């Protein structure tokens, strides 16, 4: 009999939307290409509240890194963490590269995320589920 999945760890992050706006003003293309996948950029560009959408996705990336307990650096890339929306619109996270490898080492098989934002703040929560190693 297989064991049920367990909560392994949790990460949360709060982002000031003006911080993202300032980064876009200073480094638009470089910032977007370094931090967001092309799908994340396209998704945010389709909405009037583009800054808030980008801030929410940035918060997801930070929350996932906190969840993994690794911080940025090494082989991890910002784009190794991608927020996508399932057909009903619910946000989901897709891990790749070094971030996916770290999650697998920890026994993480699924990451559940939640995002919310206002004109000023975006917050994201990431909960790792799986079977701890």
Give me a quick take on this structure.
This protein has helices spanning 17-35, 38-45, 50-68, 97-105; strands at residues 6-16, 81-85, 91-95, 108-117, 121-130.
Structure description:
The chain has a single domain (6-130), classed as Ribosomal Protein L22, Chain A. It is 41% helix and 31% strand. It has four helices and five strands, in the order E-H-H-H-E-E-H-E-E. Helix 1 packs across helix 3. The longest helix has 19 residues, at 17-35. It is globular. The two termini are 18 Å apart. The model has no long low-confidence stretch (mean pLDDT 93).
Which band does the percent of strand residues land in?
Answer: 25-35%
> What is the N-to-C succession of helices and strands?
EHHHEEHEE
Let me know the CATH homologous superfamily: 4'-phosphopantetheinyl transferase domain
Overall domain count: 1
Name the overall outline.
globular
Main sheet summary: 3 strands, antiparallel
What is the helix content? Answer: 40-55%
Please give the CATH class: Alpha Beta
Distance N to C terminus: 18 Å
The CATH topology is given as Ribosomal Protein L22, Chain A
Low-confidence blocks of residues:
none
Structural class: alpha+beta
The helix tally amounts to 4
Radius of gyration: 15 Å
- How confident is the prediction overall: mean pLDDT? 93
Assembly state of the chains shown: single chain
CATH architecture call: Alpha-Beta Complex
Write down how many β-strands occur, each being a DSSP E stretch of 2 or more residues.
Answer: 5
